[in-house]
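hey m, so remember when u said the tokens were messed up on ur end? i reran from scratch. heres the input so u can diff it against urs
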Amino acid sequence: MIRETYKGRELKILKARRPGHVRQFVGGKITNHAWPGTEEQAIDNLKRIIDLLDANGPRWAGDEAPHWWPPATNTKAA
């Protein structure tokens, strides 16, 4: 399990039931039930997504979900 805060978002990675897969959480919400890769790759993937969101803003409706944004900037209810 990996748990850390990155740019105001709480990230958590847990092993999934399926071998070689992990579950990804952002802000307490699950974003992927069976992401293929290691825990280290999964946390790097979430950080890359957050960096893209911070740089470019939301690209589709799912990007506007409150768990993707730091609590201080989140104006939508969870």
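this time it looks ok to me. The first helix runs from residue 39 to 56. if urs says something different then somethings off w ur setup not the seq
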